[in-house]
Amino acid sequence: MRYEAVIGLEVHVELQTKTKAFCGCTTEFGGKPNSHVCPVCLGLPGALPMINRQVVDFALKTGLALNCKINTFNRFDRKNYFYPDAPKNYQITQNDFPICHDGYVEIETSDGSIKRIGIERIHMEEDAGKLMHTSKGSLVDFNRSGVPLIEIVTKPDIRTPEEATAYLTKLRAILFALGVSDVKMEEGSLRCDGNISVREVGVTTLGVKSEVKNMNSFKALEKALGYEYRRQCEAVENGERLTVETRRWDDSIEETRLMRSKEMANDYRYFPEGDLVTLDISDEWIERVRKTIPELPHEKAERFVREYGIPKYDAMVLTLTADMADFFDEAAKEAKDGKAVSNWIMGDLSRLMNENGTWIADLKFGPRELSGLVAIIKDGTISSAMGKKVLEFMFEEGKDPASIVKERNMVQVSDEGALLEEVKKVLAANPKVVEDYRAGKTKILGFAVGQVMKATKGQANPTVINKLVAEELERLK
After folding, report:
1. What pLDDT, on the 0 to 100 scale, is given for residue 414?
2. In this structure, are residues 223 and 254 in contact, taking their beta carbons and an 8 Å threshold?
3. Is residue 418 a contact partner of residue 468, using CB atoms and an 8 Å limit?
4. Burial of 96 (0-12, 13-18, 19+ CB in 10 A)
5. Where is each Asn/Gln amidotransferase domain found (predicted)?
6. What pLDDT score was predicted for residue 260?
7. Whole-number pLDDT of residue 412
8. How many of the other CB atoms lie within 10 Å of CB of 408?
9. Could you give the residue ranges of the DSSP H alpha helices within 28-105?
10. Residue 285 and residue 291: Cα distance in Å, rounded?
11. Structurally, what CATH architecture does the domain formed by 416-476 represent?
């Protein structure tokens, strides 16, 4: 029997505001435990919350970027639960009136087709504190309590762990480009829970779902959903009764483990938050926020393919970070040769940055210098092989390529008379090359060209050398 997974993701995004959702405490990561707190985020009696307007702006910005409809009437609710990291014994969130709903993100599947993943809702809420477990007991740090979050909930449109990873990867890139979050999964700024069930292929009803928590990386997300799919398929095959559960991903053994039976919405006893006013979001407010949305990574990638004629893969890599995308955009515009610029960035420049542990923002030269390198290769001043050496000097010294070529006398030699003498010397010193060529071993031509390039310290024009070596071997044949 064939089964398919039905997956929906709940992504919690920590917003990059300076202060918390409902008080003036800093949202700065780290700090001495319980030092970024006040009566409001500690839930002390009589303390009253106040809405941080930037939280609303960031939620709106995200919703608009994810093609959502906006609820102009907004209300906050209390989600009641009794955990040690929830100082008020409830969380301020949105239940009945989320700020955004019915959006979508488009991903590219493994077969190259475009699939639309629906966004059910986006709502604003506050984060809880952080529990730390030691051999002597458990401690709680409330620095994170009250930090603003948005929760982005998909529709059950995802069918494979790979699609889930593709969705989260694209979502993360969009959020980072918007500037609403630093999306650092290692610091908890982006956290993902997955709801997964299985059903027979062709069946339209949903199976019994499990919610998998503690997926703090793309690799963990893919592994956890893959494991849970196999576990549930096996259970169905064996006639076991599945129940709605909350499970956690244990990375050390690469398995999901039961945490508790899954709470239902009525377990939380939602009711309106009486200490906060309702929000009426005007069309003017929405349009003001819309104007702050930059060109998003996937839009930029599509433009790069369209304007510069580079492959989709190149465009995808070049838009992984805003700095790299901007660097390429400016250099390609200047050089009027997008593919050449892309090759240098994705090839030798990326190699140099990886070897030195640096980023585009750390470079000592700019896009104009890289376009200059492309130009002097194209006009024959230097060869591509020499260009690699010039780029290394640019990386180390930050000088423009023309100055480096002049200072080091790296100008390419194209004079056929002078180069023919070098060709004759190499062939005279390597008589076996001529013998092999006479015997029909034409591949030896490449070896001969390499020897001439070596003799000229890479300054010979390789096109001219190829021509002269071929002509001379034919003459001696």
Report:
1. 63
2. yes
3. no
4. exposed
5. 326-473
6. 77
7. 64
8. 12
9. 53-65
10. 10
11. Orthogonal Bundle (1.10)
What is the percent of the chain with per-residue pLDDT over 90, rounded to a whole number?
A: 69
Angle ∠(249,252,253) on CA atoms, nearest 5: 75
Provide mean pLDDT across the span 387-410.
89
* Beta strand extents in 313-427 (DSSP E only): none
| Cα distances (Å, whole numbers) of residue 140 to 78, 88, 109, 134, 404 | 22, 14, 42, 11, 58
Residues of the chain with CATH 1.10.10.410: 416-476
Burial (CB count within 10 angstroms: exposed 0-12, middle 13-18, buried 19+), residue 40: buried
Under 8 Å between Cβ of 79 and 93:
yes
Q: Which of 203, 286, 299, 242 shows the shortest CA–CA distance to 6?
A: 203
- pTM score: 0.82
pLDDT digits (tens, 9 = 90+) for 285-303: 999 999 999 999 999 999 9
Give Cα separations from 56 to 15, 17, 76, 124 (angstroms).
10, 11, 12, 8
Partner residues linked to 217 by β-bridges: none
Residue 297's pLDDT is what? 94
Give the pair of three-digit tokens for residue 367. Answer: 């896009």
**Which residues, in sequence order, are CB contacts of 151 under 8 Å at separation 6+?**
10, 11, 12, 13, 93, 122, 123, 125
Query: How does pLDDT run across 359-383, given as a tens digit for each residue?
Result: 999 999 999 999 999 999 998 888 8
Percentage of the chain beyond pLDDT 70 is: 95
404 Cβ contact list (under 8 Å, min separation 6):
390, 393, 394, 397, 410
